[in-house]
Design a protein that fits this description.
This protein is of the alpha/beta class and about 170 residues long. It folds into two domains: about 60 residues, no CATH class; about 100 residues, 2-Layer Sandwich (Dihydrodipicolinate Reductase, domain 2). It has five helices and seven strands. It has a five-stranded mixed β-sheet, covered by helices on one side. Helix 2 packs parallel to helix 3. It is globular, with a radius of gyration of 17 Å.
Length: about 170
């Protein structure tokens, strides 16, 4: 079982090729074990079909070294895949507007007192929708870890993503 983001398609293909020699083995790669985070991504992809503007604000503890987080990048990728076209906000590309990933600005905070938080803010004509997920303890990942272990025990091959473990 692998619990990290940022694995490339090439790396996953390498794992899959190694599994050919071990047909009963299972490898479960879950970038984020939080069920709430998985649902935020699913709901954000749906909302992206209906709103022309979107930005992500993600925050983590001061010790997190990657910025933006792999989870925020994955959220941006799911949003971009759901949109028929990218709708960049005015001023995107200005350094203070965040890093642009797949057409979605991502703003990152790293501060003490925060565990993990992600807000996806959609703007539309005369309305705004915010989808928010906040983690206050590592316990938030335990159910996703448990379900992933159960999945690996009962299946073989490569599966990527908590949404595929739970479906």
């Amino acid at each position: 079982m692998v619990g990290t983001s940022g694995w490339s398609e090439a790396k996953l293909a390498g794992v899959e090729s190694q599994l050919v020699d071990h047909p009963k083995a299972a490898v479960v790669v879950v970038p984020n074990f939080s069920i709430g985070s998985m649902l935020l991504q699913r709901f954000s992809a749906e909302a992206a079909k209906h709103f022309g503007s979107v930005e992500i604000i993600e925050a983590h503890h001061a010790g997190k070294v990657d910025s933006p987080s792999g989870t925020a990048i994955a959220t941006a990728e799911k949003i971009a895949a759901a949109q028929s076209e990218n709708h960049l906000v005015p001023g995107a590309g200005q350094q203070a507007r965040g890093e642009i990933h797949k057409g979605v600005p991502i703003h990152s905070l790293r501060q003490p007192g925060i565990s993990a938080k992600q807000d996806v803010v959609f703007g539309g004509d005369a309305e705004q929708l915010t989808i928010s997920h906040d983690v206050s303890s590592h316990r938030a990942y335990s159910l996703g870890i448990l379900r992933s272990i159960e999945y690996a025990h009962a299946h073989s091959g490569l599966v990527v993503g908590l949404e595929n473990v739970l479906n």
